[in-house]
Design brief:
lpxc deacetylase, domain 1; disordered C terminus; single chain; Ribosomal Protein S5, domain 2; 307 residues; 8-stranded mixed beta sheet; 33% strand
Length: 307
């Protein structure tokens, strides 16, 4: 059976918050078995400075996903959470010297590099998965997000826009992570946006730290970053990167298929909360690799309670 994972030793990074523009020091520390992912605001001090990385703690989804427990807030967690999913990290303490997770280059790739530099270790307890047992769907206008049963994890997304630059690039992607590498093919996809929309975001105190160092900028002529895009379908892949981070707030990696159409952080969180409310839509399972000569993984639903 697959085992839980954490990092071998602490590792540090310094960056800025993309929305706050504030400098922040982040330290990742090994987490204990079954402790999950937890954020700690080291600048606040005291005992009540921790927020669990769980869907029920999501407090704001305006242009990013932020979590809170009472007065303790942590902003823009989705890229780091996506990286943790990609490397199979189950237990981790994340210390921040300010409210927002550093944006780094706008993707999950720097977090992947940071975690790999610290080393990854297996722990003695079995890894827990959340297996989807029936379809569950949420909608908002023309947008929707759903999860349905699937042997493994597959994610598809359709990006809808009528902007002529976006029209030049793929707007749909469907990835089966049994055959595609998250680290190689998804993790480096960056945040993106239209330069003309930046003043509107900054008027509501968002994107104050945004730059071409941490996002793909787009004007009427096209992509303005000197190095261009990292993937031809970087825009839609970043949407999938966000989805993965938002869904990892369920507290366990999913066994199932996600399909999103125009969905964003708000709808992703609505889907996660809907799953948690529907006890008949999922079960907690262990997961073993297939035995030689078998093409299917081995699930162990009896190993955990569904709570």
């Amino acid at each position: 059976m697959l085992k839980q994972r954490t990092i071998r030793e602490p590792v540090h990074a310094i960056g800025i918050g993309v929305h706050s523009g504030a400098k922040v020091r982040m330290t990742l520390r090994p987490g204990e078995i079954n402790s999950g992912i937890n954020f700690i605001r080291s600048d606040l001090g005291g005992a009540q400075n921790r927020v669990p990385a769980l869907a029920d703690y999501v407090a704001d989804t305006t242009l990013s996903t932020s979590i809170a427990d009472g007065a303790v807030h942590v902003a823009t967690v989705e890229h780091l959470m996506s990286a943790l999913w990609g490397l199979g990290i189950d237990n981790l303490l994340i210390e921040l010297s300010a409210e927002e997770v550093p944006i780094m280059d706008g993707s999950a790739a720097p977090f992947i590099k940071m975690i790999n530099s610290a080393g990854i270790v297996e722990q003695s307890a079995p890894k827990q998965f959340l297996r989807i047992t029936r379809e569950i769907k949420v909608t908002q206008g023309d947008a929707f997000a759903l999860l349905r049963p699937y042997q493994g994890f597959k994610a598809g997304y359709t990006f809808v826009t009528d902007h002529h630059v976006y029209d030049q690039y793929p707007k749909q992607a469907s990835i089966d992570f049994a055959t595609t590498s998250y680290v190689d093919d998804v993790s480096a996809a960056r945040s993106f946006g239209l330069i003309d929309e930046l003043p509107q975001a900054q008027a509501i105190n968002k994107c104050l730290g945004s730059s071409l160092d941490n996002a793909v900028g787009i004007d009427d002529d096209g992509v303005i970053n000197e190095d261009g895009l990292r993937y031809q379908d970087e825009f839609v892949k970043h949407k999938l990167l966000d989805v993965i981070g938002d869904l990892f707030l369920l507290g366990r990696p999913i066994l199932g298929e996600f399909i999103g159409h125009m969905s964003g952080h708000a709808l992703n969180n609505k889907l996660a909360r809907a799953v948690l409310r529907c006890d008949d839509a999922w079960e907690a399972v262990g997961y073993s690799l297939a035995k030689p000569g078998s093409c299917k993984p081995i699930l162990h639903p009896e190993a955990f309670s569904a709570g």
